[in-house]
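Deadline looming. Please check this record:
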Amino acid sequence: MDIFIPIGLGFVINLFVFIISKTLKQSDNRSLQICLFAFLAVFLSSFMIGSWVGMGIGVISSGMLLFVILIGIVIAIIPRERAI
């Protein structure tokens, strides 16, 4: 059960990144791209840090990846309403 805390933390962090990018008037795809780059930055920094701390940061980045996959599926499935 303890593994879900850092995964959930990564999910929430990427949720905040997505919300902030949406408040800055970005499109859905651009916001998702920003979240993907945030995941890649955290994931690569976990390799550079290494040791036990890097492993914890890697688990947090897995939650961030989970958010990117989930929101990507939601954006692909739910059609946008177009103004006429």
Q: What stands out?
A: The mean pLDDT is 90. The CA atoms of residues 12 and 64 lie 8 Å apart. The chain has one domain: 7-75.
